[in-house]
Amino acid sequence: MIAPSPERPAAPPAAIHLPALRPTLNVLVALVASGLALTVFVMAGEPAAVDSPTMRAAQDVGGMRPLAWLFNDWLHTQGIPAMWLATILALVALRRWDAGAFFVLAALVAPANHVMKLLVDRPRPSGSINILEYPSGTSFPSGHTSMAVAFFGAWILLAGALLPPRAVLPVRLAALVAILLTAYSRLWVGAHWPTDVTASILFGSASLVALWLLVATTAPRAALLAERMRGRLHGAVPALPFPREFDAE
Known about the structure:
By secondary structure, the protein is mostly helical. It has a domain at 68-122 and 133-222. It is built from 8 helices and no strands.
């Protein structure tokens, strides 16, 4: 009689591994340099030769009103914040502290985007283009696009460590489409210039790559330190005997 084979233990979830350092740093430098070059280009004067034709071409596409409502209104004000909070809570429940910390830190992309707005102080689109939305504040870079890059970009980076292999590619493609449609919808409603959303994608991606390096580098050391502290605390607390009335008979 053949004895049944013992069940294999479940594989532990993949951690956020440190990416290849030199190529990742090269990507980070390229993103930052491109974003800064675009910022200088915008601050030097209105890049109408680039923005205006692209803006008109984007607005010539019909049937975008439902998508504009989805990505400009619901997804930005309700959808992404709810999904962001649900993601962090789920990762905490699963004890995925490294990935949870990454999603928490990714939320810092939005304040950084606001600081950039104050520094550049670019007016919103105006003129002969079709303007359907009149948001307050300055134009460069796009806050909607930055938020989409921060949340969906985080999923693009961490999908391989958090999801089954068959789900990784569909999730990454869906996240990429969500980022691009968010950027495109901001052009369609006339709220941003093309260079605004391009800068958001560049700076948001650079921020995520930098955070990826930070978390992948520090998470293993933080976990080791936590285990050592737990062991020291456990050893420092003496075992207290039960009172007599609670002794087992």
